Amino acid sequence: DVEQKKKRFELDVERVAVEGRVELRQKLAKALFGVFLGVAFYLGEKYTFGNPITLLHGMEQLSPTYEVAVSNAKPTVLEFYADWCESCKKMAPKVSKLETEFAGSVNFVVMNGENPDYRELLQKYRVDGVPHFALLGADGKLQTTLIGKIPMSVLEDDLNALVNGEELPYIGFDIEELPY
Fold first, then answer.
1. Are residues 150 and 173 in contact, defined by beta-carbon separation less than 8 angstroms?
2. Active-site residue, 85 included
């Protein structure tokens, strides 16, 4: 009788140990899966074109240089942005769409305004806020600046006028100067 109890006790101990290892493995697997999902979501957001900062950086990398843009006899949009700028982020997909629509007829030069390499251009075009769009004619001369979270129709109308050699409908548009 004592031997049977001892044997049953040993079996119970072994069963509890096995159950504990299984439970530990399950918890470990869940934790690792959670970490994997977290990393996947983080990287997916950070490194996809769903992220406006990634989109802006990509647009900047694909931009022609300023020197090429002002010398190729096409109108040019100089866009100055900053990573922290919420308006820049919100406008990025729409500006990218306009860039696609006007591909071949308008240069889009996208520049991070916090990059010291662009200091001279920031001064030349008097960039004191972002987003800041400087629209240049085919001759490379400044036609107007559009500042702030401007309606895309404003930028589109000015681009159409630039391409067609017409007078720009919006001159010196600054969203901060609108009466409330």
1. yes
2. yes
List Cβ neighbours of 87 (8 Å cut-off, separation of 6 or more).
130, 131, 148, 149
How many C-beta atoms surround the C-beta of residue 67 within 10 A? Answer: 10
Catalytic residue (choose from 78, 85, 134, 146): 85
pLDDT in tens, 102-133: 999 999 999 999 999 999 999 999 999 999 99
Instruction: Say which of 55, 69, 77, 88 is annotated catalytic.
Output: 88
Half-sphere exposure of 164 (CA within 13 A, CB side): 10
Q: Is residue 88 among the annotated active site residues?
A: yes
Strands (E), 44-153: 76-81, 107-112, 132-136, 142-147
Residues in contact with 93: Cβ distance below 8 Å, sequence separation at least 6, in sequence order: 52, 55
Provide the residue ranges of all domains of the chain, joining segments of one domain with +: 1-48, 52-177
- CATH fold of 52-177: Glutaredoxin (3.40.30)
